[in-house]
Specification:
With 688 residues, this protein is of the alpha+beta class. It is built from 27 helices and seven strands. A five-stranded mixed sheet has the order 2-4-5-7-6. The two termini are 49 Å apart.
Length: 688
């Protein structure tokens, strides 16, 4: 579209908006006010479309029209972006990018939406606009939740909360914490969700805005309905509806009506459910909120299904399913497929029922896999972490008791040696006999010591690592929490420690993973389960996992693996190998270095190489790195800690998967670790 055509379209759009839009509620009044201001500004002498006030009004109007006229949102944002660029008005450009991100989000074009949001976030940080940074941070997080990437979503939400807390922005504190609660609710972790909602309610009370409180109550009503706590759900829904009706918040009122319908639906009161769903449906005719419409239409379908009206139920379910597919809403498609399965089963249309059941199962598996992969970053393991810490301390105490017993035995044996030595001096004959006996006992003791050393080797190494690499960070974390709990440090000071604590916890997690895996192999507990593994996917996932470490050291991570680099191996074990090798490469590569991952296809196997431009190793070190008995451990170029387990663990894992591992290295030139794995044959692929 040319710039002249765009201008003409927007001029026409303003004419329609200004003269033809009815004034029905408070939001309409806001739109009318903005349209009037734009019209008055354009009629002033020496008016310029590049005027910053004009651009700000365009962006504000685009925001107000989001749920009422999405085409206007697109055109106004494009126009604001064009004028902002031509006048070098960065703030206007940032808000226009945010508007475009909102448009593509509502249309289900997630990649474009994320691109615009990221550009807006980068620009907002450059110009120091905290309000825009927080809004964009929130929108990015929400967008990642739409595509099931809950880990990234939570990261953006928590970063936004940090910024909002630092700048004492109560409104965005409320919004971001509420969205974190919604994230937990989507994973059916209602207990954790309600904890965040309690925090949001407290913030809303401090703000003193009844609309914000009503929005929170409507979300809480939805959670209580899902939990089956219908009285609590109805109370919160009714309270929010009263506020929305009073203030004429149409899009939120439509949502609250639908929640009330869902509450009646959960109680099997289908006629009442349908009544409130229809109230919401009438409001949706005036707004453009496809995501809200999916749950509404699917709810109406369920109500008709409960009333045995299968034809109407199918109509609404199909409408909801079509919208879900159009905007790529996986959760919506999943729920609609489930409803359509039930409808077709009732109608004895078994082929269609089977089709929708397969769709539902496929989407459920996808969402389940995504949630399982990301759940460790969702802070859902707080209580489990406390239990694990207590169990670790208890186990540590038991092992210490055992060690004390061994020391006492050793001291007793030493005492016997002293007594025997003293007795030997009494006479030559006795000395001779005692020497023979001593020789025998010494041999027995040495044999016992060898066996004892072998038995305790794993234990000693584990506790050495625990004492050195885990106890320190855990104790520091515990001490910091006690100081914070006792009020000896302020919240801002506490949050200042978060990057260090995050780094320590990442190190603890990485170390524990290696320790548990290595310990299991030492006790013959690790079972190798080969399957077809796409190495390029494993490498890509680990690059994503370690990208933050690489970024902190300005190291380039280059993946040259092509698609269909398929091996016949245990995916979990190979994941551990690749993670350890890339992590080691980052550890021993100085800043501005490069780590390259390549794969060479051979007749029966793949040879994978991980090369770094790091400090390298001498010949003596190369000979020791894969030794099972080696406790070799060094610090990285930025003093990163290691456990001394990684490479011996890699060797065991590769050999369990019928491969080989070796290293080529030169001091100050870097190292290249190579390993081989069997190729996945066609029969394996069919079996998988």
């Amino acid at each position: 579209m040319t710039s002249n055509l765009l201008s003409k379209l927007c001029t026409l759009l303003f004419g329609i908006l200004i003269f033809c839009t009815p004034k029905v509620n408070a939001q309409q009044e806001a739109k009318d006010s903005l349209q009037t201001l734009i019209k008055e500004l354009r009629s002033t002498p020496n008016f310029s479309v590049q005027d910053s006030t004009h651009i700000d009004l365009l962006n504000d109007l685009a925001y107000e029209l989001r749920f009422y006229n999405t085409d206007s949102l697109l055109l106004l944002s494009q126009l604001a972006l064009k004028h902002s660029k031509s006048s070098h008005y960065k703030k206007g450009e940032s808000y226009a990018l945010l508007g475009l991100g909102n448009y593509y989000s509502d249309k289900g074009d997630h990649s474009k939406s994320i691109l615009y949001f990221r550009n807006a976030l980068s620009m907002s940080k450059t110009i120091g606009d905290i309000e825009l940074t927080l809004r964009t941070q929130n929108n990015l997080a929400t967008q990642f939740s739409y595509i099931g990437d809950y880990a990234k979503s939570l990261i953006y939400y928590l970063k936004g909360i940090d910024i909002a807390n630092t700048n004492e922005n109560k409104f965005m504190q409320s919004v971001l914490n509420e969205n974190v609660a919604n994230l937990y609710a989507s994973q059916k972790d209602y207990t954790q969700a309600l904890e965040f909602y309690k925090k949001v309610k407290k913030i809303n009370e401090e703000i003193g805005n009844e609309i914000y409180s009503a929005e929170t109550m409507s979300n809480i009503a939805s959670i209580y309905a899902d939990m089956g706590e219908l009285e609590y759900a109805m109370f919160n829904a009714n309270a929010s509806i009263a506020v929305f009706e009073k203030n004429k918040k149409m899009e939120w009122l439509a949502y609250a009506y639908a929640i009330k319908g869902k509450t009646y639906l959960k109680g099997n009161k289908y006629e009442w459910a349908l009544y409130w769903y229809r109230q919401s449906e009438m409001l949706h005719e005036k707004i453009q909120d496809d995501r809200g419409k999916i749950e509404l239409l699917n709810g109406m379908s369920k109500a008709y299904l409960g009333m045995s009206n299968d034809d109407m139920s199918e109509k609404y379910a199909l409408d909801a399913y079509a919208i879900s597919n159009e905007i790529k809403d996986m959760e919506g498609s999943q729920q609609c497929a489930k409803t359509l399965y039930k409808i077709n089963k009732n109608k004895e249309n078994y082929p269609e029922a089977l089709k929708y059941h397969e769709i539902y199962q496929s989407l459920s598996d996808t969402l389940s896999r995504n949630e399982n992969k990301k759940s460790l970053t969702m802070l859902k393991t707080k209580m489990e972490h406390e239990k694990q810490k207590a169990d670790l301390i208890e186990e540590n105490n038991k092992q210490l008791d055992m060690q004390r017993a061994y020391v006492n035995v050793a001291l007793g044996i030493l005492l016997i040696f002293i007594v025997v030595t003293l007795l030997v001096g009494r006479s030559e004959k006795i000395q001779k006999n005692l020497n023979l006996e001593l020789h025998k006992k010494t041999n027995d003791l040495e044999q016992n010591e060898i066996e004892l050393h072998e038995i305790n080797r794993t234990k000693d190494k584990l506790f050495s690592i625990i004492g050195h690499d885990l106890r320190g960070p855990i104790a520091a974390f515990q001490g910091l929490l006690k100081l914070f709990k006792a009020g000896e440090i302020e919240q801002n000071e506490f949050m200042g420690f978060m990057p260090k604590l995050s780094h320590d916890i990442d190190h603890i997690s990485f170390t524990l993973n290696n320790l548990l895996t290595w310990g299991q192999t030492q006790m013959n507990g690790a079972v190798t389960r080969p399957e077809v593994v796409a190495l390029e996917s494993v490498v890509r996932d680990n690059i994503d996992l370690l990208s933050e470490i690489a970024k902190n050291k300005s190291i380039r991570l280059v993946n040259h693996l092509e698609v269909k680099t398929l091996t016949w191996s245990d995916s979990n074990q190979i994941d551990i190998v690749i993670r350890n090798l890339i992590s080691n490469a980052l550890k021993f590569t100085p800043e501005n270095g490069m780590v390259t991952i390549t794969a060479i296809e051979k007749k029966q196997e793949w040879q994978v190489s991980i090369r770094d431009t790091g400090v390298g190793m001498d010949k003596n070190t190369v000979e020791k790195v894969f030794s099972n008995n080696s406790t070799l451990t060094t610090y990285g170029t930025n003093n990163e800690k290691g456990t001394g387990l990684g490479l011996s663990l890699c060797k065991e894992m590769i050999e369990k998967n019928n491969g080989k591992i070796w290293v080529e290295s030169s001091l100050r030139k870097g190292s290249t670790f190579h390993f081989t794995l069997p190729k996945a044959k066609s029969k394996y692929q069919r079996t998988a």
